[in-house]
Fold these 4 entries.
Entry 1:
Amino acid sequence: MTKKWVVMGSLVTIILAALACDKVLTKQPANDAILDGPVEGLTGEQHQIFLRGDVAFNDDVFTAANGLGPLFVSTSCGSCHAGDGKGHPFTTLTRFGQTDSTGNHFKDQGGPQLQNRAIPSFMPEQIPVGATFSKFTPPANTGLGFLDAVPDNTLLSMADPNDADGDGISGRVNWITLPSYITYRPGTVEHNNRYIGRFGKKAAVYDLMQQTANAYNQDMGICSYYEPYDSYTHEVVDPEVTNQKVLDLVFYLRTLKAPVQRNQNNGDVMSGKQLFINIGCAKCHTPELKTGTYAIAALANKTFQPYTDLLLHDMGSGLNDGYTEGSALPAEWRTPPLWGLGLSKNSQGQQYFLLHDGRATSIEQAITLHGGEGQTSNTRFQQLSAADRSLLIKFLESL
Amino acid sequence: MKKYFTLLVALYTASASVAQIDPTLLRRTPKDTGGVQMNMDAVYNRPFLQLGKLPVALGGYVEANYQYLKTNGISEGHQFQMRRMTLFVSSSIYKRIKFLSEIEFEDGAKEISIEFASVDFELSPLLNFRGGVIMNPIGAFNQNHDGPKWEFIDRPISATQMLPATWSNVGFGVFGKKYSKDWVYAYEAYFTNGFDDKIIDNKTGKTFLPASKENPDRFEESFNGSPLFTGKVAVKNRKIGELGLSYMGGVYNKYQEDGLVIDKKRRVNVVAVDFNTTLPKMNTYINGEWAWVHVDVPDTYTEQFGRKQQGGFVDIVQPVLKKPMMGFENAMLNLAVRLEYVDWNKGTFKSTGGNISDDVYAIVPAISWRPTSQTVIRLNYRRNQQQDILGNPPATTAGFQFGFSTYF
């Protein structure tokens, strides 16, 4: 009898020990190893909304029965932004039909976004003959609330449209028209009834509400109160997603944490950062920004490190696809934030697909494809010794 | 009014009578041990309880468990689950005419389904006619899925998340067996209602055959009017084991409505192979199944939805102790392990040529104790590695499950 109890006791002890062991029951990844998760400082109520938005973003899969398409690019938000990170070429968007600030001339033929997939029985769109186009790889979602909370005046103060300081960098803002449902952020600057865009590859999106409503509509064919026109019939149809769900999702995007840099005190990483500044990368990829007043207290008046100025820069003919949005020129692209760059592989199938269309499969290749205002930094990068280039890459991978 | 009153009294009397049944009148119907048992016999190869000389026998099984799992370090905590309770009713209507039904209550009563309800007419051992709600004989698990027969709390991923076990439909068909010394040859062939377009248009965001089970109308009408064919051939040797080869295929989409053509006919085809054997001397029991799924997904549809899938499992069960334990005369202690794999999307991305992942690997070591052959108490450790469609670093799920399953 005693023997039995010893055996049973040992078994229970082993199980309890195993339950306490990370190796047996899996370990939570370090905070700096993943992109998802909320910003610090949210209240319990805000965590609830965040969780609702998380479900709407990652778990809500649309089907024909609940509104998908009939033309679409993807069936859920999460399928383009795995782990809230950058996307893969299989969910790359194609936009077409606009070559200058006069607007999209192919709007009546499905522009600006190509819905290249369709539910059974329907035919997806084709790029109309004569339309130029560009492919956009889905960006990471992390830290978007911080970018949203930067005051317009900060962006204008960084802009140098005429290159007054003569450094070869002439960032400018994209002036865009806004849909009627937009609520202006505090300190919004207006110019001839146009406003500053800051999201999207061409900075043609004002805020995360516009981004979300557009993505529902153009990416998944889901009409909402905000974007009621069906992308297939071009008619107003009943909302296929509730306002509350849209608002929850916007809140989720606003409150996703900023990527956390890894090994930032490592000597090589610090040397790489210095090289990054020395060769001029930081002139566009601004290391540090500050938020202003904001509706979500956890995001207000915070200093953060996105490595972007949110401005448009001419990136040269090599990256000119002949397509644009708002007042941006076809060769102009908004500086993408570099934070989270080192974790991109974890959402892109363990490989890099960088630049606006994912054409660069390494960080080094992405740098060497910089032209226009980025050409000087590109040249300086290539003039660095192999060891220094490696340090700079190491720094970028730490972001 | 008088009629209703009489009826009520009759009903009350009947129920009171049942409550007063002398338990000695209940008798166990012995399991069918005639000939060699195969997977296709699993529906009848169950313990039943019969009242006196009534032609109806009852049976069932129940399974419940505790589990504590974590995925990448995040847990939903301690979970107690009543996975399912299943009731069987069988009846010998006449010589060689049998009826059997299986009604399952899953997750409490969240899902109630008739898994099997068919009448079998035996014309000869080689030719039986079956009609009603049948379990499509694809692979072996779909037919032979009773919890008490398995050493593992979770059903195989490939059988439930790729193939749609338990997968039943209304239809008709034939089956038969031929014995030849140590060998048995068997076949089954059925036409039933089938799948629907949910298999490529569902909330999982992947090609998912089990999504068709959401359609409650499939027992009443075919989604597209095209029958699903399921056929299986199997051979068993008393000393070597059993090998089965099965096929299930049909049109899954609605290609016409009110006489109007709305799409081309799109097929789903499944091929499965299953085997089981007991190694001599060691008495090691090995049981496995592998299936390949091919779905005609429109070219214009997203690559998320796999055109090809494959997966399977192998269970190895080693009895380590067979002796009276704690008052149970024929108690048995087993060590077991299950290895399983499913690839929901076998192919490459058009855009990059890279491999499409969307797969899962799992290993499930287990200890099971059987106080009797009809009851099993199981302790499982489960470890899964699941990759998304892009092949990003896998999510690892691991944890312990403890529970029982027993016929009653």
Entry 2:
Amino acid sequence: MRSLALLARNRLALGGLIVMGLVVFLALLTPALPLKPPNITDTSNRFLPPFSQGAILGTDHLGRDLLSRLMWGTRLSLAVGFAAALIAATIGAAIGIVAGYYGGRTDNVIMRGVDMLMAFPYILLALAIVAALGPGLINALVAVAAVNIPFFARNIRGITVGIAHKEFVDAARLSGMSDARIILTEILPNVIPVIVIAMSTTVGWMILETAGLSFLGLGSQPPVADLGSMLGEARAALITNPHTSIVPGLMILVIVMAINLLGDGIRDALDPRLKSGALNRPLPATLVAPSRQPAAQHADAILTLDNLQTQFHVKDRVYRAVGGVSLSVKPGECLGIIGESGSGKSVTALSVMGLVASPPGIITGGSVHYQGEDLVGAPYRRLRTLRGREVAYIFQDPQATLHPLYRVGDQLIEAITAHRPLSRDEGRRKAIDLLDAVRIPNASARVNDYPHEMSGGMRQRVGIAMALANDPEVIIADEPTTALDVTVQAQILSLLDDLRRERGLAIVFITHDFGVVGQLCDRVAVMYAGRIVEQGPTRAILDAPRHPYTARLMACVPELGGGKRRLDAIPGLPPAVDDLPPGCAFAPRCDRATETCRTGEIPLDKVGDRALRCLHPVTMTEAVS
Amino acid sequence: MTTPALRLDTLSKTFPLGRSLFGPERPGVRAVHPITLDVMPGETLGIVGESGCGKSTLARMLVGLIPPTTGTIEIEGAALDNADPAVFGKRIQYVFQDPISSLNPRKTIRQIMEAPLKLLHGMDRAARTTRIAEIFETVSLRADFLDRYPHEFSGGQAQRIGIARALAAEARILILDEPVSALDVSVQAQVLNLLADLKARLGLTYLFISHDLAVVEAVSDRIAVLYFGSVVELGRAEDVFRTPRHPYTKLLADSAPVVGRPLRAPEGAETELPDPLNPPEGCAFRARCPRATDLCRKLVPTLAPADAGHSVACHNPLGG
């Protein structure tokens, strides 16, 4: 249903659908229409022009009614085109699925056979098949289907290889399914959308190919006409009586155009990547709502977030990803943001430099002050000069953030030249210095490596080197060690710690790991459902958490050295941010919650250097024991 | 002496590289070196190791998804040399790391749950419905989930469904391959507790594979540490990380972030794993090992008992 709505939103595809629907409808209705018989010759009335008495579109060289022949011919052409597409798709998909599923030698033998078919020019191959089988519409259909099988086989094989290695296929095998059953019930339902897409984009092509064979006299045999043979018969009178060629020619044009527009629409509607909006180009900077209330700036901190609110507007739903976050970080300080997935910690970080994808992201309130300048709503040019030079990011997956086709050295140089011009030699020297700074051994050789030649830990070092390239004042690190092994994680963490001490960097470190926060961060903010629930010096919070969420989150994470034991799980799930409960978002999962927790706004109260958003905090004596 | 629930005897896996067009046959990549191990009924054996250590290959061999190159697997005393997963399926089951991608997106939960009951146990429709209700009760899932599709569930719920499917096969041994590493911490504890309850109630035996040392320690009776395809240390869970005997285990334990421990890199910058295409001679860990000697370069250490219930594969183990 959703796909249909998507299809209808595409104007051209909708037009194609309407035209195609009309043509198919008329073709189906042809036998019932009051048309003259299409194959009765009447040589006394040959080459009547269009709009003649009794022949709206005129007659051909044997005096047959063109309208009638056109309708019957369209009917035949459509039937042959669709049948060929269906046959090619069925056989091609079957070949592709078998090759992709079994792999190895089966795959090799089948696909090399398909490659051989593809090595011939398609029209030559079709001609050869018709020549071998003899002319005739059915043989033309076979030829057109055969030359299109490789296209489907290759397409579907690629998709099947991906699906056959998915975990659910292994799971099906462990459930006792045979290969045939897995192919039919696990693989096939997942490739059918691809088959439909491939068919919708090729059926027009197949109608053209059939028309081509008929035009050459190898398809439909006289007196029966399809669109191609009508064109072929009219060829001799192309100059003297052009209407005999124009009529079938226009029909072919209309059908193929309509099918192609419709096919593109179907592809766009069914393709999961297009459906998720991945191909929508986001704006260069996050949108800012005009109703935003900026906040006043603060002294001494280098980066201050004030009541920052970021939302995602998807259709009629509003996801309050960040619901009023205030934070600050001083030079040389490391601030940890800890939270579970969906707590808004990454969106907070991306909002700082306007990197949240828009649409659907939009900053609806608050300010981000960098050295006294409000970055929210700053012009894109200004943001671009600050990005990377003043505030740099390190992301979780360096595999995804490094370009696979460029040497790491060139990527580092590019990061620098984005902000200041640099000669080639100077750039290379600087890149080697940076790799040295992040302790990559043998930097002068590894500067020429491609990302895939490095281990995960090395790649993340390059990611850090890139963040350092322009001597930024603030680094925002979004789970930089989550994808790494523990031994590598320990090295990356100590590297970050050294760098901030040597260079006076301010670091905002986002993680879900209390151990990491405890080792690296001076202060920590705990986020839940888009808001900070507790904030303060790391040691104080880890020794005596006051918010029940912090306390229970810490209790349910096992710590090394504790031995075998039962963990204190938190029941339930975090709330969805498009449907937040009133009052405290943690109340439904909290055993201390009372009625007052479930109503009204609960403020973030500051006491000394700690802040807490809770009506029934864990008392100091409870927390320490 | 009781029969072990699971016995691996010199089980190994070498992935062939194929041959180049004209060159000689290449030797192949040894993902798992011969491993001999017993898992007792009702025990949880934890397997820890970093990425590329062969833990997933080992797990997939145990459930028959890939055939071993050498060695045998014995389940409750009976050899299983049959590579047919349907035969494996009734004796040993697998819980996948990524709960969402282990469920077919185009099937309802009911269809997914019915497959093992129908195909492994030949139950009729009525029996299946009763059994599914029973299993869902056991793993605390609501019955109205049955007619929904996988994408409608959170990671924690999907992992419960994955566990429910494994239980449906009525295997007594479960291979848990990183069952909680894709889950949020607050949900992780729920699933770990569920697994502990199920084990106590149904008398299951677990092989718990993870890269998270603290999680493995919290759920396991014994722990095997895997490095470069070999077990380098095996011992009681409370001993392995508290008093590690193998230098690699010590490195792992020192690297784990622990609140209150000062931050320092436990070893130098170069911590590359050995190249599997060009494996080193002798001990695979020697290039990173502070205690490596000449002997380590020549001779591969074998797993040998160090003291009661604690084995180590090292020529110069740390003091006991």
Entry 3:
Amino acid sequence: MAGYIVRRLLQAIPVLLGTTFLIYFMVFAMPGDPIVALFGDKTPPPQVIEQLRERYHLDQPFIVQYFIFLGNIFRGDLGTSFSGQPVSEILAATFPVTLRLALLAIFFEMVAGISVGLISGLRKGGIFDASALVVSLILISLPIFVIAFVAQYIFGIQLGWFRTTVGSGAPTQDLILPALVLATISFAQITRLTRASVIDTDTQDFVRTAASKGLPRTRIVPVHILRNSLIPVVTYLAVDFGVLMVGATVTEGIFNVPGVGRTLYQAIIRGEGPTVVSFVTVMVLIYLVVNLLVDLLYAVLDPRIRYAK
Amino acid sequence: MPSNITRPDQQHYVAPVEETPLVAIDTVKAEGKPSNLWTDAWNDVRKRPMFWISSALIVLVVVIALFPGLFTQVPPNNDCQLANSNGGPTDGHPLGFTKQGCDIYSRIIHGTSTSLSVGIIVTVLVFVLGIVFGAFAGFYGGWLDSVLSRLGDIFFSIPYILAAVVIMSVFSQYANVWVISLAIGIFAWPATARVLRAEILRVKNSDFVMASTALGVSQFRILVRHVLPNSIAPVIVITTISLASAIVAEATLSFLGVGLPSSTMSWGNDISAAQTDLRTAPQVLILPSIALSITVLSFIMLGEVIRDALDPKARAQR
């Protein structure tokens, strides 16, 4: 196990360097003045430009700039937003809200996705299976911002069940509607993964053995089938995290959730390029760490991964 | 010696094949059609209503994109009157008006080509990059595989919408259909490359590849003529679905304000512009959303049907 962890950590290093380099390259290696380009059609005050030029060491060769940028990130210095607040401080204040929203969304999508997938898989070809397929296809086809607006209109404005925007301090009851919206993105994927996995497991020898020993179906389904069907769902969590980050940017923006996503959303809307770059870099780093953790978790769950060369 | 011995060295009677039941097994039906993956898939696909529904919708969308003039005579941009702001349907304007007083139906019709163009350009880009990277990594293996796969890992580690947001923030002055398609496509290919690489690893050890090698066929020719055509099926599936994802990505970027300039007709821009009036005029936001969702749904349904037809495992699970 220790060998696997070391190997996996070593593999993460080039990816880490590669992704940060790529982001930096996209912004700063382009012809023209990157600082001016980052502001689009807006003209920032001269002292802001001066400050940014100094911060990004644009007089240095490109590769030196990149390593200074990388060094800054690892010292936790992510630059300052336009209001003068350090990005790291904003992150510290907003991250807990986003984490709560994401956990709530993961809870909803897991409960709904696994139960629907399990029932579909056990009764494949039935009416429930067919309707679940139709519903999940429709949900995949709806962009997240459309789902968010429709939910806001129906449940917030028409029915009045939820507040349309999240109140200060982001109380958990206000986060339920945004979390449900966020959960719809991955619901279809989780349903499909669970269904395929359940159908696969249902035909395995150990399930037949359990049945021939006379175990009731009520025991075989949760203990033998469901538990063995969940491994693909766990690995999906890693991919899901990337989906959730993009989804959270849109959902938090629409529901005004004071999280990391809304901060990024507002920076994008206002055209504050440098802040966008800092936030995207941080999100990609978080995504890499989560992927690493999920891989390690997967190795704990499934010994075959650990020992595979 | 019995007279009916067939060959001089045989001690016992051996019946000619025609007289034995074995003939039934040996007979090859000459009039039967040759069967392969693609004809099997076609036979499967054409029996499914979902295939015909999604194909009909896709044809409709393509026709609208190519010839918007067939569907509406109302100009989408000029002819807008603020007096009609967020107005309901009237004669000649079946879906009502936007905030700027433009005809919603006409804007939906004229926005179709934008979404479809982005979808197609991104898909071609992803298809080509995915095949080049996946095929070389999978077929040649070794250090080339390591380099290409790590490169793919790096691009895969940045969620492509976030990457596109960064690119579009830098290139906001140049935003047009080509730039936005490049921004989406350049980070969307690793999934395709991974699928193809895995499939090629499976196919390249087949007997027919070994036979070609034994006959002295060059490696590159084996890859192009024998390995690629036999491992392309999963790529076709993922490509159909990536067309749908690209359309959604363009709409999302336009919604975030880093997509196409507001002068370009796009469903994403119209949805974005309508969000402030959600409370009073939800139809202005919902109508283009429906057009967007139906287009995406038809490509996803088609991808779904093709997956079921090409992947024997998916077929068994149906």
Entry 4:
Amino acid sequence: MTATATRPSLTAKASNYLDERTSISTLVATLGRKVFPDHWSFMLGEIILYSFVAILLSGTFLTFFFEPSMTEVHYDGSYVPLKGVAMSAAYASALDLSFDVRGGLLMRQLHHWAALLFIAAIGLHMLRVFFTGAFRKPREINWVVGFILFILALAEGFTGYSLPDDLLSGNGLAIINGMVKGIPIVGTWISYLLFGGVFPGDDIVPRLFVLHIMLLPALVIAFIGIHMVLLVVNKHTQFAGPGKTNDNVVGAPIMPLFAAKAGSFFFIVFGVLVAIASTFTILPLWEYGPYDPSPVSAGTQPDWYIGFADGALRLMPGWETEIFNWTISWNILVPIAVLGLFIVIVMIYPFIEQWITGDEREHHIAERPRNNPTRTAIGAAGVWFYAIMWAAASSDLIATHFRLNVFHVTYALQAMLIVGTVVVYWLTKRIALGLQKKDREILLHGYESGRIVRRPGGEYIEVHQPLDEYEAWKLKAYESYAPVMVRPNAKGRITPATHLRAALTRWFFEDRVSPVTPRELEIAKRHDDH
Amino acid sequence: MIGLVVAGGASVAVSSVANAEPAVAPHAQQLTAEDGELLFRANCASCHGLEAEGTEAGPSLIGVGAASVDFQVMTGRMPMAFQGPQAEQRDPQFTQEQSDAMGEYIAALAPGPDVPDEQWLDISQVDDEGIARGGELFRINCAMCHNVAGAGGALTEGKWAPHLRDIDPVHVYEAMLTGPQNMPVFNDANISPEQKREIIAYLNYLDENPSVGGFDLGSLGPVSEGLFIWIFGLGGLVAVSVWLTSRPN
């Protein structure tokens, strides 16, 4: 017994061998102790990561069989209604993947469904980070990295959508071609460069394929790496609670608990995706037929994540002006400008907010959305703006399914885009302030217990029950800001930038509910006692 | 009996027709163009005019042919359920004999497209390549309104192109031939009867071979796919993550 106890086990020897050569123990010790807070919204990033793994695996399978070429062939596979039809080799190989390669259809559907889930989860994850203020110092750079990942994911999605060279993907490219050509002067030349001649040409599929399977995935993986490293360096944020401060992270360490949870979550995500891919069809490309510039199908839409851009085009009135025989297509240029501006604002929002608030402190506590009413209102208005454009991409289906006039649907969405965004901003801000007031009242005077008591004098009162310490902490732990004052700088001048900033902080923080002070709590407590 | 129908049909309320219908069918095996005229006067004339010359409420039917009558009546589009952007479909209000009689009457007014011969509806004469050609013709000529999968689509001003699933071949043929409502006419010079038959064979193939990749989510394309992944895919996984991070209370 004693002899075996002193002899190092095989595992110990192996790990020692590895450690002596790689010093991996430092890394394992650091990473193994990385702490994950217990809140479901912190798992959204994992859905993204795991669906990306599903995309990589299924995508690798697809590249074994897909032929990225626009050479004309005549189909000779199993699908009867396309027999002998002229098509590109790309489309023919996509059909073979669906009908003649064992497991090919499942893999193609898995790849496509996982891509939709990947981007949807990115969207939700970004909203979580935005509304809890988790992008504040020191995480601004990681927000930008994450945002670049989002744009890369859109690019991956769009290039993938265009590869099978079916009618739907060709229609999508036709819209891109139209948008590019709408750019004054250089548009036509850019289009020729992109498509290698007149649209559609026979270069675009191989070109997009290289982007889709090489450049973009490499960038996505690199940026995921940066995102993860910064995540470890910055640590997680957490919601306020007893024992949870700005200087610690409370939760489960990676080893062993979180690794077990995350590992099982990976299998759940993968399992859900395979279940969806094997029971629900996605892009039945045999129905669409090969791309041909003349036919366009009713109900032609991009995948959901490009929907906002399609919707913007649908909502824009068809304005054009002609100057010296040059047509300026405002119907293309305005949506491009608006979307570009929208994207840039989202990307640099952490820096905008920091400049306005002048807040240079580090923040590791996730804010409850109500505790920053203006940011929450900006976010809600942004979500609304995006969602209306998104809905507009399905205006024709809204019209047929709800028996409406498609023109009226468009007018209504136009109004909702412009007026609705303002209304949503205002409403959200008021609701957030109202919730803050309610929190304050509950904290000071307790919650309504539902117990009605009759006083000796005949008066009825409802007894208010004070919160327990645990609950109370969540309500009182937040920071409040005051607008920045206009002060002269070192040279004794007040610059226009100072004025602008003061005006913006007033906009942000003029309407506010300040947190309960200890003194107020003390008074309220004494009040409760008698 | 027919006299009764006419008398009852002086008011063109559709209900009266529906009531009269069983009374007519058993007795009148062979209806003639005259019977068709009486039926027309009783049920159609208030909008289309006593001599089918048209009124403000409905177009002239002179020269539309028997094919048009058969399509409109036997798909339940006429008599119209109500005035709207487009005639709604409902259960047919007449028997095939009654409809044919009205068709004969209309065809006698002026020449027009006739009901197609049986041979043009016999899709057993179409081979695999023919089905493929039919698919190609469908994508080029029909898909822009009816959708590639025949799921239908929106048109302007509240009008729509109906879905094309499980439609009687004769009605598909007649629709191409006569261009009902907002549909353009695809005459025999444009799409030959053989080609029309191939299109019908393609639609039949779609009906007989349901979605191979699983549930088709209405064949509506990326919109229903996006809604599905947000609601069931992401929604389900969020539920799982709530469960994974929950603690026993």
